[in-house]
Amino acid sequence: MKLTDPLPTPPEALRVGPLAEGAFTSRLRDERVASWMGLWLGIAFTVCLITGLVDWDAQLAHPLVRLPQRPVRLFQVSQGIHVATGIASIPLLLAKLWAVYPKLWEWPPVRNIAHGLERLSLLVLVGGAVFETFSGLLNIVEWYPWPFFFPTTHFWVAWLTIGALVVHIGTKASITRRGLGRPVATSTPAEALDRRKFLGAVGAATGAVTIVTVGQTLRPLAGLDLLGPKKPTIGPQGVPVRASASGAGVTKRAADPAYRLVVEGAVRTPLSLDVAALHAMASSHATLPIACVDGWSSTADWSGIAVGDLLAMAGARKGARVRVESLERSGLYRTSTLNAQACRDPLVLLATHVRGEVLHLDHGFPCRLIAPDRPGVLQTKWVTRMVVL
Amino acid sequence: MNGHEPLTLSGLGEPPQWKYAPVLYVLGGLTMVGGAIGLVIQNHRTHPVGTALYFVGGAVLHDAIVAPAAILVGLVARALVPEAYRAVVRGGLIVSGVLALISLPLVLGKGRQADNPSHVPLPYGRNLLLLLAITWGVVLMLCLVRLLLSRNRF
After folding, report:
1. What part of B 70-99 touches A (C-beta under 8 Å)?
2. Which residues of chain A have pLDDT under 50?
3. Phi-psi region of A373 (alpha: psi -120 to 50; beta: other; left: phi over 0)
4. For chains A and B, what is the number of CB pairs under 8 angstroms?
5. How close does chain A come to B64, measured CA to CA in Å?
6. Which chain A residues touch B90 with a CB distance below 8 Å?
7. Which of A168, A229, A375, A385 is the most exposed place for a label (fewest CB within 10 A)?
8. Band of residue B4 on the pLDDT scale cut at 50, 70, 90
9. Is B2 at the interface with chain A, CB within 8 A?
10. C-beta of residue B25 within 8 angstroms of C-beta of residue A170
11. pLDDT tens for each residue of B32-61
12. pLDDT value at position B13?
């Protein structure tokens, strides 16, 4: 049996409700609308995939492609685009699904095996697209009403979705080309005008959700940040916080006079520094954004000790890498590693101050890592140990 | 209508398949298989049953509730609003619906953390009302413009 051999049609008596012919009446549900939405959504999902992969790669123990450390805003821009594009996809996705909704109820439900397979891949595409956009939306709010770990699941479902999208582009390439091309005389001028107004309304909705959220990372629009889960200016010392000291369970140990920063491992002179010693050595400055993978960012003037200076003082060899460890007892982001290039970068600091004030406990007092083009979760806070590798 | 002849949204027949489509089927199929394998291999984090539930649940929620609700609202609007203003009101409904949807978790106070006041720090309910007021203000203005223009014409 061939994939395209017709399958038997179910009895016509079952063709009721939305399955009935002519059940859907809006003339807006048109090939052109579906094609335009598809094009916009395809671009949006591609941008989300690429920027998502930048973040994924940056968090690997051994990145496949090492992100350059200049310009210092590269990661911030990439991550801001990822979340902004994801939010902008929501109105596009809903409009697209509305436009093609009658196809869900097409008759007969399965014409042949190839058609059945295509519909199955559409379930993957629709399920994946809804899953990715809405799990992302809830993640930035930090609301997790589900049993899975968000980053890993969001990553793998992205591949399912993109795979289904590639198949969908294959099945719809010719029809989309027709839809985007010069209009064929299937609609009146009034209908064409109405269609343009509908596309305009979807564009307006996309613009609206973007403009009231993108201020969480785009400082000039911070005043319009009405529905963003973070605001770049709100937080201790004017910088937002992802993980608080009490949430991380480090309040006591960070404030303990017995606290020391220890530099050890492959060094000639291991160091052990208390808070007063750290402050005495804090002479380097850097203006850097802290850019969270949740799509917000905030730029501040940090000061502290350049990691390169600290390593030179301890007599680490050139080209060494460093594992930075937090006071946190557990958690995926308890430690992070600085590669050899970062260890030499004068903008990579163990910061003790932000905006001229001693770091707030929630920003990582006594000291935290701050480096250019580094995901926020790897800007380790409450640093207590640096192991030279 | 021929039961086996596929009809497209436009009522035109389906054009012939793009000649490179099979390449995309293979590429896309392999990518999907990769994603599925990843979900299964890292099951200690992805919780495949939970993921599957949310995956299918999202599509079902849309198809069974969100889409019919949107269609119902559209039908009611079509019945109530004179044709000249329909497109503008439809635009207002689309913008309002999407703003309400993306702010729903925030308005419900989800994600708030007692020890981190910098997270979800804004009065989201008030902000949403403000945005809805602006949206409908614009809708009203556009309707008035439309009304004045049509009066002048005749």
Report:
1. 70-71, 74, 87-88, 90-91, 94-95, 97-99
2. none
3. left
4. 266
5. 11
6. 197-198, 201
7. A385
8. very low
9. no
10. yes
11. 999 999 999 999 999 999 999 999 999 999
12. 78
- pLDDT band for B15, please (50, 70, 90 cuts): confident
What is d(CA A342, CA A310) in angstroms, rounded to the nearest whole number? 13
Gap between the Cα atoms of B103 and B107, Å rounded: 6
**What band does B7 get if pLDDT is binned at 50, 70 and 90?**
low
Distance CA A271, CA A214 (A): 43
pLDDT of amino acid A184: 61
Question: Is residue B66 over pLDDT 70?
Answer: yes
Residues with Cβ < 8 Å from B93, sequence gap 6 or more?
A: B73, B74, B77
Mean pLDDT of chain B: 92
DSSP designation for B13? B
Whether residues B56 and A158 touch (CB distance < 8 A) is answered with: no
Task: Please judge whether B94 and A202 are an interchain contact, meaning their C-beta atoms are less than 8 angstroms apart.
Answer: yes
* CA pair distance A306, A146, nearest whole angstrom: 41
Q: Hey, is the C-beta of B14 within 8 angstroms of any chain A C-beta?
A: yes
B52: contact with A, CB 8 A cutoff? no
Q: How far apart are CA B65 and CA B57, in angstroms?
A: 11
Main-chain dihedrals φ then ψ at residue A287, nearest 5 degrees: -100, 105
Give the pLDDT band of residue B151 (cuts 50, 70, 90): confident
The residue of B2, B14, B24 whose CB has the most chain A CBs within 10 angstroms, and thus the best one to mutate to test that interface, is B24
Tokens of A8: 């038997």
Q: Does B26 touch chain A (CB under 8 A)?
A: no
Q: Closest partner residue to A148 among B6, B47, B61, by Cβ?
A: B47
Asked if residue B71 has pLDDT above 70, the reply is yes
Hunting for tokens 């809903």 — which residue is that? A94
User: How many angstroms separate the CA atoms of B86 and B106, rounded?
Assistant: 31
Q: What pLDDT was estimated at residue A192?
A: 87
pLDDT for residue B1: 36
- Selected for mutation to probe chain B from A7, A111, A160 (highest B CB count within 10 Å) is A160
> What gap in Å lies between CA B31 and CA B34, rounded to an integer?
5
Backbone angles phi, psi at A191, to 5 degrees: -65, -40
d(CA A168, CA B15): 15
Tally Cβ neighbours within 10 Å of residue A275: 18
Q: Please report where in the chains the tokens 């937080």 appear, as a residue.
A: A235
Note whether B4 contacts A226, CB cutoff 8 Å.
Answer: no
- Residue B2: pLDDT band (50, 70, 90) is very low
pLDDT at A265: 97
Q: Are A336 and A378 in contact, with CB atoms under 8 Å apart? A: yes
> Residues B67, A97: contact at Cβ < 8 Å?
yes
Q: What is the DSSP letter of A62?
A: S
B27–chain A Cβ distance below 8 A for any pair: yes
CB A52 within 8 A of CB A80: no
Q: Residue A199 is encoded by which pair of tokens?
A: 């596309």
ipTM confidence score: 0.95
Question: What number of helices (H) and strands (E) belong to chain A?
Answer: 10, 10
